[in-house]
G domain-containing protein
Amino acid sequence: MEGEVLPLETKNILQECPRFRVLVVGKTGVGKSSLISFAFGVDRNAISHYARGVSDIVTEHVSDHNPRFVAHDSMGFERGETMNLDTVRKFLEARSGGTIPLKDRVHMIWLCVAVPFAEFPAFKNADDNMIQLAWSLKVPVIVVFTQYDRLVHRMEEILIDEDSMLDDEHFDRIAADRAEAKFLESCVKPLEARNPGMPYERTFGLRGEKITPPSQTALRRLLSTTQRLVQKSIGGDVWVVTAMAQRVSYWQGLASAASFGNSTLETCLVTIHQEIAESWNFYDPRDLLNGPVFRNRVKALAQLAMPEEMDAGSWFENIDHIQTLLGLGTAIAAPVAPAVAAIGLSALFLHWLSRTIHRTPEILRCLMAYILDITLVMDQLFLVVLATHPPRALTAADIDTALESYMLLNLGDVHKDVRIYVTRAKFLQILAANSAEQKVKELLQKYATR
Protein backbone atom coordinates (compact mmCIF):
# COMPACT_ATOMS: atom_id res chain seq x y z
CA MET A 1 0.00 0.00 0.00
CA GLU A 2 1.37 3.43 -0.97
CA GLY A 3 2.66 5.31 2.08
CA GLU A 4 2.86 2.26 4.36
CA VAL A 5 6.13 2.14 6.31
CA LEU A 6 7.87 -0.29 8.60
CA PRO A 7 9.03 0.73 12.12
CA LEU A 8 11.83 3.30 11.85
CA GLU A 9 15.00 2.39 13.71
CA THR A 10 15.99 6.03 14.06
CA LYS A 11 12.97 6.64 16.30
CA ASN A 12 14.38 4.18 18.82
CA ILE A 13 17.81 5.79 18.65
CA LEU A 14 16.40 9.28 19.13
CA GLN A 15 14.53 8.24 22.25
CA GLU A 16 17.89 7.57 23.91
CA CYS A 17 19.81 10.48 22.39
CA PRO A 18 17.69 13.03 20.50
CA ARG A 19 20.48 15.55 19.83
CA PHE A 20 24.21 15.72 19.20
CA ARG A 21 25.88 18.03 21.72
CA VAL A 22 29.15 19.86 21.03
CA LEU A 23 31.09 22.27 23.22
CA VAL A 24 32.95 24.96 21.29
CA VAL A 25 35.88 26.50 23.19
CA GLY A 26 38.71 28.87 22.38
CA LYS A 27 40.03 32.38 22.72
CA THR A 28 37.74 35.33 22.07
CA GLY A 29 37.77 36.33 18.40
CA VAL A 30 38.81 33.00 16.86
CA GLY A 31 35.50 32.58 15.04
CA LYS A 32 33.53 30.22 17.28
CA SER A 33 30.18 31.84 16.52
CA SER A 34 30.76 31.75 12.77
CA LEU A 35 31.75 28.10 12.97
CA ILE A 36 28.62 27.16 14.89
CA SER A 37 26.49 29.20 12.52
CA PHE A 38 27.80 27.75 9.26
CA ALA A 39 28.32 24.18 10.46
CA PHE A 40 24.82 23.60 11.79
CA GLY A 41 22.63 26.46 10.65
CA VAL A 42 22.37 28.24 13.99
CA ASP A 43 21.59 31.95 13.59
CA ARG A 44 24.76 33.83 14.48
CA ASN A 45 22.74 36.67 15.97
CA ALA A 46 21.06 34.24 18.37
CA ILE A 47 24.34 33.06 19.89
CA SER A 48 24.61 34.98 23.15
CA HIS A 49 27.68 37.10 23.82
CA TYR A 50 28.30 38.87 27.04
CA ALA A 51 31.18 40.83 28.51
CA ARG A 52 34.63 39.47 27.82
CA GLY A 53 35.60 36.72 30.26
CA VAL A 54 32.01 35.95 31.31
CA SER A 55 30.88 32.46 30.31
CA ASP A 56 27.34 31.44 29.44
CA ILE A 57 28.31 27.84 28.83
CA VAL A 58 25.04 26.34 30.05
CA THR A 59 22.98 28.04 27.33
CA GLU A 60 21.92 25.64 24.58
CA HIS A 61 22.14 27.10 21.08
CA VAL A 62 19.69 25.27 18.84
CA SER A 63 18.55 26.15 15.33
CA ASP A 64 14.90 25.92 14.37
CA HIS A 65 16.19 24.56 11.06
CA ASN A 66 18.38 21.88 12.70
CA PRO A 67 16.91 20.56 15.97
CA ARG A 68 19.27 17.55 16.08
CA PHE A 69 22.21 19.76 17.05
CA VAL A 70 22.87 21.71 20.25
CA ALA A 71 25.97 23.85 20.79
CA HIS A 72 27.47 25.25 23.97
CA ASP A 73 29.78 28.26 23.65
CA SER A 74 32.40 28.54 26.39
CA MET A 75 33.19 32.16 25.54
CA GLY A 76 36.86 33.18 25.42
CA PHE A 77 39.94 32.11 27.33
CA GLU A 78 41.81 35.32 28.04
CA ARG A 79 45.45 35.72 29.06
CA GLY A 80 45.97 35.24 32.77
CA GLU A 81 42.38 34.22 33.48
CA THR A 82 41.34 30.91 35.04
CA MET A 83 37.62 31.53 35.60
CA ASN A 84 36.45 30.30 32.21
CA LEU A 85 38.58 27.16 32.30
CA ASP A 86 37.18 26.38 35.75
CA THR A 87 33.68 26.91 34.37
CA VAL A 88 34.40 24.53 31.51
CA ARG A 89 35.82 21.95 33.91
CA LYS A 90 32.72 22.01 36.11
CA PHE A 91 30.44 21.88 33.06
CA LEU A 92 32.25 18.89 31.54
CA GLU A 93 32.38 17.03 34.84
CA ALA A 94 28.60 17.40 35.03
CA ARG A 95 28.18 16.35 31.37
CA SER A 96 30.53 13.37 31.01
CA GLY A 97 30.95 9.88 32.39
CA GLY A 98 28.99 6.65 32.25
CA THR A 99 26.51 7.70 34.95
CA ILE A 100 25.30 10.68 32.92
CA PRO A 101 22.41 9.91 30.51
CA LEU A 102 23.66 9.79 26.93
CA LYS A 103 21.35 12.60 25.84
CA ASP A 104 22.84 14.99 28.43
CA ARG A 105 26.53 14.32 27.77
CA VAL A 106 28.89 16.47 25.76
CA HIS A 107 29.64 14.26 22.76
CA MET A 108 32.42 16.36 21.21
CA ILE A 109 34.66 19.35 21.93
CA TRP A 110 35.83 21.68 19.20
CA LEU A 111 38.89 23.59 20.43
CA CYS A 112 39.18 26.60 18.12
CA VAL A 113 42.67 28.01 17.58
CA ALA A 114 43.22 30.88 15.15
CA VAL A 115 45.86 30.28 12.48
CA PRO A 116 48.58 32.91 13.11
CA PHE A 117 49.34 35.07 10.09
CA ALA A 118 52.25 36.82 11.79
CA GLU A 119 55.12 35.54 13.91
CA PHE A 120 53.05 34.55 16.92
CA PRO A 121 52.61 31.08 18.45
CA ALA A 122 49.33 29.38 17.65
CA PHE A 123 48.94 27.64 21.01
CA LYS A 124 48.54 29.11 24.46
CA ASN A 125 48.71 27.40 27.84
CA ALA A 126 44.91 27.53 28.04
CA ASP A 127 44.69 25.41 24.86
CA ASP A 128 47.00 22.76 26.31
CA ASN A 129 45.05 22.76 29.57
CA MET A 130 41.80 22.32 27.65
CA ILE A 131 43.14 19.30 25.76
CA GLN A 132 44.38 17.67 28.94
CA LEU A 133 41.05 18.30 30.65
CA ALA A 134 39.13 16.72 27.75
CA TRP A 135 41.39 13.68 27.72
CA SER A 136 41.12 13.22 31.50
CA LEU A 137 37.32 13.15 31.20
CA LYS A 138 37.44 10.98 28.06
CA VAL A 139 35.56 13.49 25.91
CA PRO A 140 36.73 13.47 22.27
CA VAL A 141 38.27 16.74 21.12
CA ILE A 142 39.31 18.15 17.75
CA VAL A 143 41.58 21.15 17.31
CA VAL A 144 39.89 23.39 14.75
CA PHE A 145 42.35 25.82 13.17
CA THR A 146 40.22 28.80 12.14
CA GLN A 147 40.72 31.79 9.84
CA TYR A 148 43.15 30.04 7.53
CA ASP A 149 42.17 32.53 4.83
CA ARG A 150 43.97 35.31 6.73
CA LEU A 151 47.21 33.36 6.35
CA VAL A 152 46.60 32.91 2.61
CA HIS A 153 45.95 36.63 2.22
CA ARG A 154 49.16 37.42 4.10
CA MET A 155 51.15 35.19 1.76
CA GLU A 156 49.54 36.97 -1.20
CA GLU A 157 50.58 40.37 0.17
CA ILE A 158 54.18 39.23 0.60
CA LEU A 159 54.22 37.73 -2.88
CA ILE A 160 52.95 40.97 -4.43
CA ASP A 161 55.81 42.83 -2.81
CA GLU A 162 58.30 40.29 -4.15
CA ASP A 163 57.00 39.83 -7.69
CA SER A 164 54.00 41.66 -9.11
CA MET A 165 54.53 40.29 -12.64
CA LEU A 166 53.30 36.73 -12.02
CA ASP A 167 50.20 35.62 -13.93
CA ASP A 168 47.12 34.74 -11.88
CA GLU A 169 47.55 30.95 -12.08
CA HIS A 170 51.16 30.94 -10.87
CA PHE A 171 50.44 33.63 -8.29
CA ASP A 172 47.57 31.66 -6.71
CA ARG A 173 49.54 28.42 -6.68
CA ILE A 174 52.66 29.92 -5.10
CA ALA A 175 50.63 31.78 -2.46
CA ALA A 176 48.67 28.59 -1.64
CA ASP A 177 51.87 26.53 -1.37
CA ARG A 178 53.48 29.08 0.93
CA ALA A 179 50.40 29.25 3.12
CA GLU A 180 50.33 25.46 3.40
CA ALA A 181 54.00 25.33 4.35
CA LYS A 182 53.51 28.05 6.97
CA PHE A 183 50.46 26.25 8.35
CA LEU A 184 52.44 23.04 8.78
CA GLU A 185 55.28 24.91 10.46
CA SER A 186 53.29 27.14 12.81
CA CYS A 187 50.26 24.94 13.58
CA VAL A 188 50.61 21.25 12.77
CA LYS A 189 54.17 20.65 13.99
CA PRO A 190 53.64 22.39 17.34
CA LEU A 191 50.39 20.48 17.84
CA GLU A 192 52.03 17.14 17.10
CA ALA A 193 54.96 17.99 19.36
CA ARG A 194 52.66 18.84 22.25
CA ASN A 195 49.94 16.23 21.65
CA PRO A 196 50.99 13.39 19.29
CA GLY A 197 48.08 11.95 17.30
CA MET A 198 45.77 14.84 18.12
CA PRO A 199 43.07 15.15 15.39
CA TYR A 200 42.77 18.53 13.73
CA GLU A 201 40.97 20.24 10.88
CA ARG A 202 40.93 23.77 9.50
CA THR A 203 38.27 26.23 8.40
CA PHE A 204 38.40 29.43 6.38
CA GLY A 205 36.13 31.91 4.68
CA LEU A 206 33.28 31.63 7.21
CA ARG A 207 32.09 35.19 6.77
CA GLY A 208 29.21 36.98 5.12
CA GLU A 209 26.14 35.21 3.78
CA LYS A 210 27.79 32.55 1.60
CA ILE A 211 30.91 30.43 1.62
CA THR A 212 32.95 29.16 -1.29
CA PRO A 213 33.15 25.52 -2.45
CA PRO A 214 36.65 25.06 -0.90
CA SER A 215 35.28 26.37 2.39
CA GLN A 216 32.37 23.93 2.12
CA THR A 217 34.83 21.08 1.60
CA ALA A 218 36.85 22.06 4.67
CA LEU A 219 33.70 22.31 6.75
CA ARG A 220 32.54 18.88 5.66
CA ARG A 221 35.94 17.41 6.53
CA LEU A 222 35.48 18.72 10.05
CA LEU A 223 32.00 17.21 10.27
CA SER A 224 33.21 13.87 8.94
CA THR A 225 36.10 13.77 11.42
CA THR A 226 33.65 14.63 14.19
CA GLN A 227 31.37 11.75 13.26
CA ARG A 228 34.28 9.30 13.02
CA LEU A 229 35.64 10.26 16.46
CA VAL A 230 32.22 10.13 18.10
CA GLN A 231 31.66 6.65 16.69
CA LYS A 232 35.09 5.51 17.89
CA SER A 233 35.10 7.17 21.30
CA ILE A 234 31.51 6.85 22.48
CA GLY A 235 30.21 3.88 20.52
CA GLY A 236 26.56 2.94 20.38
CA ASP A 237 24.30 4.95 18.09
CA VAL A 238 25.40 8.51 18.93
CA TRP A 239 27.15 8.59 15.55
CA VAL A 240 23.72 8.26 13.90
CA VAL A 241 22.54 11.39 15.71
CA THR A 242 25.79 13.08 14.71
CA ALA A 243 25.04 12.20 11.10
CA MET A 244 21.55 13.63 11.40
CA ALA A 245 22.92 16.83 12.91
CA GLN A 246 25.32 17.35 10.04
CA ARG A 247 22.89 16.19 7.37
CA VAL A 248 24.96 13.18 6.38
CA SER A 249 23.30 9.76 6.21
CA TYR A 250 24.40 6.16 6.02
CA TRP A 251 22.01 3.23 5.91
CA GLN A 252 22.72 0.03 7.81
CA GLY A 253 21.22 -3.43 7.56
CA LEU A 254 18.85 -3.03 4.63
CA ALA A 255 20.76 -4.24 1.59
CA SER A 256 20.28 -7.91 2.42
CA ALA A 257 16.47 -7.44 2.63
CA ALA A 258 16.53 -9.48 5.84
CA SER A 259 14.63 -6.84 7.82
CA PHE A 260 11.52 -6.66 5.65
CA GLY A 261 9.75 -9.95 6.37
CA ASN A 262 6.71 -10.39 4.12
CA SER A 263 6.47 -6.74 3.10
CA THR A 264 6.03 -5.62 -0.49
CA LEU A 265 8.82 -3.95 -2.40
CA GLU A 266 6.76 -0.74 -2.32
CA THR A 267 6.64 -0.79 1.49
CA CYS A 268 10.39 -1.44 1.68
CA LEU A 269 11.23 1.46 -0.61
CA VAL A 270 8.90 3.85 1.23
CA THR A 271 10.54 2.85 4.51
CA ILE A 272 14.05 3.33 3.13
CA HIS A 273 13.03 6.67 1.68
CA GLN A 274 11.47 8.04 4.84
CA GLU A 275 14.28 6.82 7.07
CA ILE A 276 17.03 8.37 4.97
CA ALA A 277 15.16 11.58 4.10
CA GLU A 278 14.39 12.28 7.75
CA SER A 279 17.90 11.45 8.93
CA TRP A 280 19.36 14.27 6.80
CA ASN A 281 17.25 16.71 8.78
CA PHE A 282 16.83 19.32 6.05
CA TYR A 283 14.60 22.30 6.76
CA ASP A 284 11.63 21.02 4.76
CA PRO A 285 8.40 22.52 6.17
CA ARG A 286 6.45 21.54 3.02
CA ASP A 287 7.61 17.91 3.39
CA LEU A 288 8.80 17.84 -0.22
CA LEU A 289 11.35 15.10 0.46
CA ASN A 290 8.67 12.69 1.66
CA GLY A 291 6.15 13.73 -0.98
CA PRO A 292 5.04 11.51 -3.87
CA VAL A 293 6.81 13.56 -6.56
CA PHE A 294 10.29 13.14 -5.11
CA ARG A 295 9.66 9.50 -4.11
CA ASN A 296 8.63 8.64 -7.66
CA ARG A 297 11.69 10.34 -9.10
CA VAL A 298 14.01 8.34 -6.87
CA LYS A 299 12.12 5.20 -7.84
CA ALA A 300 12.60 6.15 -11.49
CA LEU A 301 16.35 6.20 -10.89
CA ALA A 302 16.61 3.04 -8.78
CA GLN A 303 14.48 0.96 -11.17
CA LEU A 304 17.20 1.37 -13.80
CA ALA A 305 19.50 -0.97 -11.88
CA MET A 306 16.88 -3.66 -11.37
CA PRO A 307 16.47 -5.70 -14.60
CA GLU A 308 19.05 -8.12 -15.90
CA GLU A 309 21.17 -6.61 -18.64
CA MET A 310 19.57 -8.80 -21.34
CA ASP A 311 16.05 -7.83 -20.19
CA ALA A 312 16.59 -4.06 -19.93
CA GLY A 313 15.24 -3.46 -23.45
CA SER A 314 11.87 -4.94 -22.56
CA TRP A 315 11.59 -2.76 -19.46
CA PHE A 316 12.15 0.61 -21.06
CA GLU A 317 10.95 1.92 -24.40
CA ASN A 318 13.63 4.64 -24.54
CA ILE A 319 16.49 2.23 -23.85
CA ASP A 320 18.86 3.96 -26.30
CA HIS A 321 18.60 7.23 -24.38
CA ILE A 322 19.02 5.81 -20.89
CA GLN A 323 21.41 2.87 -21.25
CA THR A 324 24.25 4.85 -19.67
CA LEU A 325 22.01 5.54 -16.67
CA LEU A 326 21.33 1.82 -16.32
CA GLY A 327 25.06 1.25 -15.95
CA LEU A 328 25.29 -0.44 -19.33
CA GLY A 329 27.06 2.26 -21.31
CA THR A 330 29.96 4.64 -21.03
CA ALA A 331 30.09 8.21 -19.74
CA ILE A 332 26.93 10.30 -19.99
CA ALA A 333 26.96 13.13 -22.47
CA ALA A 334 25.20 16.00 -20.69
CA PRO A 335 23.45 17.45 -23.79
CA VAL A 336 21.71 14.15 -24.58
CA ALA A 337 21.01 12.86 -21.08
CA PRO A 338 17.25 12.82 -20.41
CA ALA A 339 15.75 14.80 -17.56
CA VAL A 340 14.85 12.76 -14.50
CA ALA A 341 11.16 13.52 -14.97
CA ALA A 342 11.30 12.12 -18.52
CA ILE A 343 12.48 8.65 -17.48
CA GLY A 344 9.16 7.52 -16.01
CA LEU A 345 8.30 4.33 -14.17
CA SER A 346 8.36 1.08 -16.14
CA ALA A 347 5.17 -1.02 -16.13
CA LEU A 348 7.27 -4.05 -15.12
CA PHE A 349 8.74 -2.10 -12.22
CA LEU A 350 5.28 -1.05 -11.05
CA HIS A 351 4.28 -4.72 -11.09
CA TRP A 352 7.29 -5.63 -8.93
CA LEU A 353 6.34 -2.92 -6.39
CA SER A 354 3.14 -4.76 -5.45
CA ARG A 355 4.86 -8.13 -4.98
CA THR A 356 6.08 -9.53 -1.67
CA ILE A 357 9.81 -9.04 -1.42
CA HIS A 358 12.06 -12.03 -2.12
CA ARG A 359 15.79 -12.54 -2.09
CA THR A 360 16.64 -12.27 -5.73
CA PRO A 361 19.39 -10.45 -7.64
CA GLU A 362 16.79 -8.03 -9.05
CA ILE A 363 15.52 -7.05 -5.60
CA LEU A 364 19.03 -6.69 -4.19
CA ARG A 365 20.07 -4.43 -7.07
CA CYS A 366 16.95 -2.34 -6.57
CA LEU A 367 17.44 -1.95 -2.80
CA MET A 368 21.12 -1.11 -3.12
CA ALA A 369 20.44 1.34 -5.94
CA TYR A 370 17.64 3.05 -4.01
CA ILE A 371 19.80 3.47 -0.89
CA LEU A 372 22.68 4.82 -2.94
CA ASP A 373 20.55 7.01 -5.22
CA ILE A 374 18.59 8.80 -2.50
CA THR A 375 21.64 9.23 -0.24
CA LEU A 376 23.78 10.65 -3.04
CA VAL A 377 20.96 12.93 -4.19
CA MET A 378 20.79 14.18 -0.59
CA ASP A 379 24.55 14.67 -0.74
CA GLN A 380 24.09 16.95 -3.76
CA LEU A 381 21.17 18.70 -2.05
CA PHE A 382 23.40 19.40 0.95
CA LEU A 383 25.74 21.37 -1.32
CA VAL A 384 22.83 23.34 -2.75
CA VAL A 385 21.52 24.27 0.70
CA LEU A 386 24.91 24.87 2.33
CA ALA A 387 25.63 27.62 -0.18
CA THR A 388 22.78 29.68 1.30
CA HIS A 389 23.02 31.20 4.74
CA PRO A 390 21.07 31.20 6.93
CA PRO A 391 19.41 27.98 5.73
CA ARG A 392 16.08 28.55 4.02
CA ALA A 393 13.21 26.19 3.40
CA LEU A 394 13.79 23.63 0.67
CA THR A 395 12.20 24.32 -2.69
CA ALA A 396 11.21 22.02 -5.53
CA ALA A 397 13.87 23.75 -7.63
CA ASP A 398 16.57 22.82 -5.08
CA ILE A 399 15.52 19.16 -5.27
CA ASP A 400 15.42 19.23 -9.08
CA THR A 401 18.94 20.68 -9.15
CA ALA A 402 20.24 17.95 -6.84
CA LEU A 403 18.56 15.19 -8.86
CA GLU A 404 19.93 16.40 -12.17
CA SER A 405 23.41 16.96 -10.73
CA TYR A 406 23.58 13.44 -9.37
CA MET A 407 22.23 11.96 -12.60
CA LEU A 408 24.87 13.72 -14.70
CA LEU A 409 27.77 13.23 -12.28
CA ASN A 410 27.48 9.71 -10.87
CA LEU A 411 24.26 7.81 -11.57
CA GLY A 412 25.52 5.68 -14.46
CA ASP A 413 28.74 4.75 -12.66
CA VAL A 414 26.91 3.96 -9.41
CA HIS A 415 24.51 1.59 -11.20
CA LYS A 416 27.36 0.02 -13.11
CA ASP A 417 29.14 -0.74 -9.83
CA VAL A 418 25.94 -2.22 -8.39
CA ARG A 419 25.52 -4.43 -11.46
CA ILE A 420 29.12 -5.61 -11.31
CA TYR A 421 28.70 -6.47 -7.65
CA VAL A 422 25.26 -8.14 -7.89
CA THR A 423 25.44 -10.71 -10.65
CA ARG A 424 23.35 -13.83 -10.66
CA ALA A 425 26.51 -15.95 -10.50
CA LYS A 426 27.67 -14.24 -7.27
CA PHE A 427 24.27 -13.73 -5.67
CA LEU A 428 24.38 -16.75 -3.34
CA GLN A 429 27.87 -15.79 -2.21
CA ILE A 430 26.65 -12.29 -1.37
CA LEU A 431 23.78 -13.67 0.71
CA ALA A 432 26.02 -16.14 2.51
CA ALA A 433 28.54 -13.44 3.40
CA ASN A 434 25.87 -10.81 4.14
CA SER A 435 28.27 -8.34 2.54
CA ALA A 436 25.87 -6.07 0.63
CA GLU A 437 25.73 -3.59 3.51
CA GLN A 438 29.49 -3.14 3.44
CA LYS A 439 29.40 -2.66 -0.33
CA VAL A 440 26.81 0.08 0.04
CA LYS A 441 29.09 1.86 2.52
CA GLU A 442 32.06 1.52 0.18
CA LEU A 443 30.12 2.99 -2.73
CA LEU A 444 28.85 5.85 -0.58
CA GLN A 445 32.42 6.69 0.36
CA LYS A 446 33.47 6.43 -3.28
CA TYR A 447 30.80 8.74 -4.70
CA ALA A 448 29.92 11.15 -1.89
CA THR A 449 31.16 14.70 -2.46
CA ARG A 450 32.45 15.25 1.06
